[in-house]
Amino acid sequence: LAKTTQPISMDSYEGQEVNITCSHNNIATNDYITWYQQFPSQGPRFIIQGYKTKVTNEVASLFIPADRKSSTLSLPRVSLSDTAVYYCLVGGDNQGGKLIFGQGTELSVKP
Amino acid sequence: DVKVTQSSRYLVKRTGEKVFLECVQDMDHENMFWYRQDPGLGLRLIYFSYDVKMKEKGDIPEGYSVSREKKERFSLILESASTNQTSMYLCASSLSDFAYEQYFGPGTRLTVT
Fold first, then answer.
1. If pLDDT is split at 50, 70 and 90, which confidence band does A95 have?
2. Is A34 exposed, middle or buried (0-12, 13-18, 19+ CB in 10 A)?
3. Contacts of A110 by beta carbon, 8 Å cutoff, 6+ apart
4. Could you tell me which chain B residue has the CA closest to the CA of A91?
5. Can you name the residues that pair with B42 across neighbouring β-strands?
6. Chain segment B48-64, per-residue pLDDT in tens
7. B67-84 pLDDT, tens per residue?
């Protein structure tokens, strides 16, 4: 299963765009890339998932280059409420979707 | 909305006690998972189950067992609790066709003294 590497922490200001990059050099052909958000004292929450190129939803965008060895989560115009830990996951199959959570990136948004 | 509930938010147990952590999901999901979360280590998968009475070991199964007698309920068992099992325990569930989107419960903070 592919391991992921992402920055431990990032700082930003309200209204800025935040890009968090995740490295996953050993990603397998059938692996998906999934991002989760976790607030203190809560379980993680699914944000976005992709396989290749670009995926966008109402919360974020996910950019995946052709070699799929990395991915970038983009949060447009962050607010204070986006302060959380963001996890990049790679993996999953039709037998339970075994995923590996890395250490996550602690994003701090300042006013 | 999918709801995943866990039996306790906070639990304090003594070393050597048998501990049961219960998780229930209400969306008829096939897959259920148990993770533990520790500072600096992120979430680590303990066990998962893709069907009733089926279970698979995750990355750190030692010292734990699980039970899934009904589709909606997945239990984590610490046969003899130890202080190094003090942690936040998170349960999750997912649909079989969308295994990558997991729905998490609020977590149980277990302290073993």
1. very low
2. buried
3. A11, A12, A13, A14, A80
4. B100
5. B38
6. 998 898 899 988 999 99
7. 999 999 999 999 999 999
Chain B residues within 8 A of A102 when measuring between CB atoms = 42
- Give the integer Cα–Cα distance in Å for B35 and B91: 6
Residues 6 or more apart whose Cβ sits within 8 Å of residue A40: none
A30-78 per-position pLDDT tens digit: 888 899 999 988 899 999 999 999 999 999 999 999 999 999 999 999 9
CA geometry: angle A42, A47, A48, nearest 5 deg: 155
Distance CA A10, CA B11 (A): 33
Q: How far is CA A3 from CA A22, A88, A100, B48, B61, in A?
A: 10, 10, 7, 19, 19
Query: Shortest Cα distance from A72 to chain B (angstroms)?
Result: 18
Q: Are A31 and A94 in contact (CB under 8 A)?
A: no
Structure token pair of residue B37: 């979360």
Residues in chain A with CB shorter than 8 Å from the CB of B103 are 46
| Distance of residue B82 Cα from the nearest chain A Cα, in angstroms | 23
pLDDT above 70 as % of chain B:
94
Q: How far apart are CA A51 and CA B103, in angstroms?
A: 20
